[in-house]
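ugh ok fine here u go
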Amino acid sequence: MSPARISKYPPIGGLSLDSHQVEAPFSPPVPPAPPPAKIPSYVWAVVVGVPVCGFFPTGKWSWYKVTTEGLGNILVGHDWGMFQSHIPVPVIATPSIAKHTIGSSTKYWLPSTPNKDPQCGSVPGGDGSVAVSTPAWCMTTLNCQDIAGWPFVLPTSTCFQMPSTREVGFTWGDLISGVIGMVGDCVGKLAGKALGDKFGSAGGDTWKDALSSALRGALVGAGADLLSNLVPDEPKWAKDAFKVVVSGAAFGGLDRGLGDTLGAAAGPAISGAAGGLGGEAQESMDGNRPPDR
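structure:
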């Protein structure tokens, strides 16, 4: 077991280099030249610093009930969410700048599993594992990526936290749990894209489509968290299983069509299933590990 720090809330900010598709530049070609093709993979610099969606609807943190040194604790799954600045490198003029800025995601993914706090973030919930930080008060986080429009996540960003003295343990089981969650996020995003395409998603390549898609996914996840408060804490897998079942229903009646509903529900549903699987893997490796505090 290695010593780690609790990631403290509110976070300071972060930086990343991501891969995203680039659409045709704003300037139209002069006829008879054909329109330029999309670049399937391009390097983007990301500045993580707009916390509005970390308050609602993608935030997962504990503050009002658990504070140390005047700060709250970030829980695993906390996402900075939309509106983090995306800049293509080298810089080119493209509508993709607005699209990727609106649809951005930066998520805390590494837990100290047995150290749990009540979720007091945007959607009140049951106990969630705290997210860890290094003793240098920074940690890798999962950032949105895509190649040729197919989305996934990778731990390419680094987020910075307030200094704190709160130490917790971090084990190989915690790492495996985080990796399983990351894989689940990737599968969920890819499944959402595939389902949306197959069943006629209204999604497209404009900033309006990016905003609509990001809001649908965020509200599905928030709705599943809120409804899961109705489920008892024991057995441990019950809440995750419940989230899988209700992810589609939580937003289906308000969506624009079958493709969009399935696409929005796939991410939270598969991520919830991966979270339960990661917890089981961690427990099988670490045994009955008591909290560190």
